[in-house]
Design brief:
With about 450 residues, this protein is an alpha+beta fold. About 15% of the residues lie in helices and about 35% in strands.
Amino acid sequence: MAECEVNYACACGKSMPLIHLFFCKYCVTLRCPKCVSHEVDSYYCPHCLENIPSAEAKSMKNKCQSCLECPNCTNILQVRSAQVPMVRREAGKVKGFGQFKKVYYLQCSFCFWTTRDVNQPDKAASNGPWIEPQVEDNWMSGIVNYYRHLIQKEKVEMEKRKRQRRGSFLGSLGISDKLLPFSKLARSSFSMNLTGTGQFDENIVNNFTPLEAEEETEPADEKYYTAPGEPYHYASIASRINQPSNEVYYACDLKPNCTHLMVKRSQRCRECEHNLSKPEFNPSSIKFKIHQIALRFVPRFRIVKMVSLNPGEFTKVHFSLTNPTEYNLPVELLPLPEGHPSYSKLTTEIKLPDKELMLAARDDTAQYDTDASIQDFDDDPDIVVARRMNKLTFVISVKPLGTSGSVIMGFQLKYKYKAMTPSIRPEEQKDPEDVNVMPSVTVVLGSI
């Protein structure tokens, strides 16, 4: 049987699991990651947990210069020390002092890769720079600089064409440029502001030499066809992708990689522009200042017990509903209307409960109370199977319409959300209003 899943429909019509959705308290609707705007709050290193400003992160190419990763397994490299003998040269010969000095190198604690394996010299200080700037990085910076000046040149030329067209249009009307409300100096400064800095180096654009592909390439050495393969001497594809500027081919040419920075993002509703999720600024904290995920506001529908389904026959399937709110929540299951986008995907006929299902309020201390599970609810034994705290287990009869393929059922989950409008003044605080929320749910029950 295929994998079962439960998806909730967003306001845009896209369906996905409830754990991936947000709930906007102001629009009173579900929002998927594509219905919210993502804003970067801060950059930080996942290893040293250091906050890095945006301008500095951009200049460092979103990499931490203090933490280095192993080029083989991408684990963090640790600084190791060693004692090496001190030597001196006399008359072309190397003689030892009999003394030792401390040097430092990098080692991976997982695969035991070291900088000595790639013939990288040891450092006299433990906090010195371990990666030297490469010639390829300068070449890449030259390419970026060329395109930056090329874009600026195109902006200036486009602005000149606009001014020429404007002058020709005014000339056809018999209006001179002198009659415009701008002076010559003001017009020139206005043009410069439209094109950014308005400055570019013509020599950089004209003297740039692009790379050209060669018609004939050198033939490969015969040893690649005759000698036995040694895969451990060559760099893996993943290691080569992590160092595109070095164009590494052999494993002995690998260099440590700088750790990529991570970001803390906040999500904002695009309709009302209210924050739905905002983490704390501290990189070591996993808490949120605002965290309006759908799991905290929408009842969670799950599959409890799955049975084999027969085409054309009704089968009782066990489902559960969990109440995430702190008040009793009446829930009603309604069929999907025919005009719904998910209606054409349904391949089953279902018998939904004809009564409201009352979900008990969530109580974090209920598991420690022996009388918490004893509550007086008028449940229909033909529908409700079990009840424990804020979780209700019930059955739905499902009949597949086809003889093969996926079994998909759908319905609307209607419940009342208590919308509370916050107020600064306590005397103006209003009672919460009940708002009907009807998210659409589609359930994949496998295949037959």
